[in-house]
Each structure stands twice: as structure tokens, then as C-alpha cells.
Amino acid sequence: MKLSSQALILLLSIALIQGCNFKTKEATAEEVAAKEKVKTDSIEKAAIAERTIKRDKLEKEIADKAERRRLAVVEKTSKGESYKDAKGKTVYIKADEMPVYTGGDAEMMKYLKDNLKYPDDAKDSGEEGTVFVDFVVDKTGKVKDVVANDAVNDDVDSLLKNESVRVVSSMPNWKPARNKGKTVDAAYSIPIKFQLF
Q1: Which CATH number is associated with domain 82-194?
Q2: Cα within 13 Å of Cα(133), Cβ side
């Protein structure tokens, strides 16, 4: 009898231990799932933080480049209000009335938004940046001599530059610049920002 009760106690002890062990395995699975969620959340937060840092750095670089461009224009205009292009035509940097996009800046932004296409290859590789596009609005209001300017050592992807040039080249006519009452060719520059969301 003593042996039977000891065997029974032993069996109950084993059953109890196994039951506790099962709960420990359940708890362990829950802990693993919780740890995986924390790990995933941490990775996502790190990726967001990295993108935010990258964007902040990009914004600072854009502001710095814009300031360098502004200073370059100031220096260029201090040497004169105009220059001769490759064909010998006078192009004004600073006219009495500078050219205006038909409908104003709001319409120009709408045009860019409607017509600019983020190049797939640039999007796939995560390329972002601001392209400064320089061009001339001739005396008839036509956009010509469009270039994506590298004057500030910009490291923007060539696909973004090409798309910017394409869109600006296809702009409708502007209201031309005027100097001393006459319509004139005038240089103009706009920044086009490419940003992934």
C-alpha cells in the first residue's frame, strides 16, 4: 500500500510538472511573439528615424544650395543686368518686369504637379532631391535653353534632372519679360523637388 501511494504521488508529481512545463512553453511562445513584435517595432522606428534624418539633412543641403545659387545670381547681376547667349542675343538676368507663368505661380505649381512624373528607376532606388532648372523665356514667351544646373555641386540623379528638363521644356508660353517698355529674353530659374512619401 505504501508503494502504491508513493507511486501515485510520483505520477501526480510528474503530471503536475508536465502541466507546469506546458504552461512554461505557452508563456515562452507568448514571450517570443512579444519579443519579435518589439524587435519589428524597433526596426520600423529605426527606419523612420533614418528617413527623417536623411530628409532633414537633404532639406539643409537644399537650403544651403539655394543660398549659394542666390549668391551666384547676386554676383552675376552685379556684373550687369544682361549677358549675350551663344547666338549673340541679349538675355536679361534682371529686367524691369521679369517673365511670369501664365496664371501666376499657383498655376505653374499645378502644371508641374500634373505633368511631372517621378521616374520609376529613381523611385525604385529611393532617389530624392531638388533639381534647379535654368531656362530662358524669349520675347514671345516661349521657354528655351532649358538646363538642369549643376553650378552648386548638386548630386541629384540624372533621371530626375532629365524629367525636370522635359517638363519645363514642354511648358506653355509665359508672359515675357519687359525692359524699358520692350519685350525681351530673360533668364529664369525654378527648383523642382522630388520627394518620396
Answers
A1: 3.30.1150
A2: 26
Annotate 136-183 with DSSP letters as a single string.
EE-TTS-EEEEEE--TT-----HHHHHHHHHHHHTPPPPBPEEETTEE
C-alpha cell at 192: 523642382
Nine-digit cell at 155? 548630386
Q: How far is it, in rounded angstroms, from Cα 100 to Cα 159? A: 27
How far from chain centre, in Å, is Cα 197? 8
Residue with cell 540624372: 158
What's the pLDDT tens digit per position in 39-77? 777 788 887 888 788 778 877 877 777 677 666 666 665
| 83: CB partners within 8 A, 6+ apart | 76, 90, 91, 93, 187
Q: In the chain, where are the structural domains located?
A: 1-79, 82-194
Q: Tell me the per-residue pLDDT of 22-35, one tens digit each, with 9 for 90 and over.
A: 445 555 777 777 77
Residue 179, C-alpha cell as written in the block: 525692359
Sign of CA dihedral 178, 139, 88, 74: positive
Q: Are 139 and 107 in contact (CB under 8 A)?
A: no
Contact 150, 132 (CB under 8 A): no
Task: Give the residue carrying C-alpha cell 508672359.
Answer: 175
Q: For residue 167, what are the contacts with CB-CB under 8 A and spacing of at least 6?
A: 112, 115, 116, 192
